[in-house]
Fold this sequence. Notes:
By secondary structure, the protein is an alpha/beta fold. Helix content is 31%, strand content 20%. It has 11 helices and 16 strands. The strands form 4 sheets. It has an 8-stranded mixed beta sheet with strand order 4-1-5-6-7-8-11-12, with helices on both faces. A hairpin with a 3-residue loop joins strand 11 (215-218) and strand 12 (222-225). The longest helix is centred in the N-terminal third of the chain and has 16 residues, at 96-111. It is globular. The chain starts with 6 loop residues before the first helix and ends with a helix.
Amino acid sequence: MTLTVPLVALALWSWEIGAAHAAEPGKDASAASLPRILVLATGGTIAGQADPRATGAYKSGQITGEQLMQSVPGLDKLAKLNAEQISSIGSQDMNDKVWFALARRIQEAFDKNEADGILITHGTDTLEETAFFLDNVVRGDKPVVIAGSMRPATAVSADGPGNLYEAVQVAADPRSRGRGVMAVLNDKIQGARSVTKTNTTSIETFSSPNDGPIGYVDTAGGIRFMAQAAGLKRATYQLPAGEQLPRVEIVYSHANMDAVPIEDAISHGAKGIVLAGVGDGNTSKPALDALEAAAKKGILVVRSTRVRSGFVTRNVEVDDDKNGFVVSEDLNPQKARVLTQLLIASGVTAPAELQRAFTATW
């Protein structure tokens, strides 16, 4: 498609339109006209409570989704909320079973017209992986928003209530349709493909290194999207039978690396290996040799990078065509793993087909 409007002008135009149509705080719609938002709670820090073991310590997933919604003033003025508890775990324990339960419940709610938008409450450690997984399996253009917090609900300066309020705003806004799964934290709206956690403890932790936020939220100005919705161009994948995705391992590259981690992944039945490579997805010669041998055995090899931003490019530092490798483009290792799992589960196993699928998501 050829753009006829300069990119800068388009961004400014979209910002102005968003500001003009942003909901004004304090102006309530009638109850009958409020959008219906289904809240799916999974636990995480946002549902955490203080623990006496240390200053700032907490236990994740102690507060229910319904309690979280009731604790934030004004949510009932934004939407009609219905909360369901999917799990009560820290997101370090996020797993395929919970992912499948989320995906199925979201799809059911959309297919049966039970909701106009979805809000998922989630821990921050693996939030980006859940967002990306759902972005690749949920069909439809209604908003799916995922939110969390860096501080527990019982903290003096908890960030959860503000994040929840803004997440409901985004999920309830008609302009959020057709934008895929979005993460809303710390006044920013981030797309599922690019968002990543960048700091261990700061509330300013989520960013999109390669393309920036897709929008912003604030209590005074409402919602501002930086561009028009691109529409539904994403491929979606069917969930495989059962409750588990194929085994794909991430191998982290480092100085003086040998083949042992790769051989270990193969010995434990990995169907695919994602390399968190140095620089442009590279690694040592012993590791590359082991990856080439793995590819010859039919194990899918995807080169990603441990570097925070940038694209991994084909056939520059590594002969991907010769070795039968796939490059992750801009996807970090954890998201490359998710897409590789979905592709294997869908029967896509030829390296050329995988590469087209990775490229098509950009």
